[in-house]
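so my prof wants the structure for this chain in the tokens format not the other one, which i didnt know existed until like an hour ago. anyway here's the sequence
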Amino acid sequence: MKKSYDTSSYLSYNCVTCLRLTRWIINSYFLCLMKILVVVLVKPTLTPLTLLAVLISAPDAPTDDRDVHKELVKKAGELVQIVDKDWRGEYLEDENSYAVYMSNHDVLLTVSRAKFVDFFEHCDEVLKVRCIYMCFNKEKVFKEKFGIPFALRSIGFKMLNPDDCPPSIDKNSYVVMRYRLYI
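here's what i got, hopefully its the right format
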């Protein structure tokens, strides 16, 4: 007696296997292509990958390095405003640093800690600033052991001697704390 085989199930199994193999080959090719793009485009320019994606995908994105830097500084200012609406930020070009001016340094309730971390990471990883200065208005009562100054001291900010204050920050109007990212 002859055995009969169902060829339709055999063919469907082979088609599914073939489709899976084709999908795997296409995915592998795409990943390899992306690695080549990263190595060729990102490594020589030392441009962060997120900026590279913006520059490649958006035709109206700034292409000059200075324009890109201005956009990054603008983004840092927006992040400062998100941390607290009464804060304002300023990039100190001569120092390659960023200063944050705050009017209310006693109230921690309005400050978003998560957004402060976003701002801090932006300054560190994207802007690559040397220092972050937190400037407190001298007209307000300054309590180093309470509020925002105390919180900043706990993460590594140090009180700055007025003589060491950068020239672009008015040392007569502000008490300054500094955090060094790069020496």
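also thought this was worth mentioning. The mean pLDDT is 75.
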